[in-house]
Amino acid sequence: MTLAALNDLAARHALTSYGHFATKPPDNLGQGTLVLLGPAEPGFWPHVTAQPEFRDNQPDPLDRWSSRVITELANAVGGTAYFPFGDPVRPFISWALRSGRTWQSPVVLLVHETAGLMVSFRGAIHLPNLSLAPIVATRPCDTCADKPCLTACPVRALSAGKYDIHACHSFLDTEDGHDDLVKGCAVRRACPISQNYGRSEQQSAYHMQQFHPWP
User: Is the pLDDT of residue 182 over 80?
Assistant: First the structure.
């Protein structure tokens, strides 16, 4: 199994590799490589919302789809699937920071090489027999002159090194916060990489609904 082969299989489900790293004994995953998977854009949301999980009127359709599809992928390639939801809780943030393509942004949120601040992980597959060279990449924020993420939040809920979740929820309860509810967080949208990523507003609205339910 190669990373290219895994990506070919994942592409059938509008998924792609978001980075990888060699696992170590403290990870308790066994020797091998952990590959993080995320949406392949554009086109992820139309694909996933056409799946059975989004038509059966049961809760958590995106997580259930992710669990089904990524488990099937893992079984097909002789790996083990892990998810950023459910029990036990897996350290996806620290995994992401080890993946070579994701970093902490100036506003604390994770930022990805191609997804920007719209980065989201649907799961990961541990491949016990795969050895890959580490990814060497440069954090895009280091060459972002304007850093619009630092000033995009109207109430400064997200700013340099801090996240005021109470201020965020309070703002989303106001009329002024409606635009963020239907289009996605203004800070995430301000990132130049996010703007070129191709994520649909419908997907952002879905995630905002999970974060801050509204009628």
Answer: yes
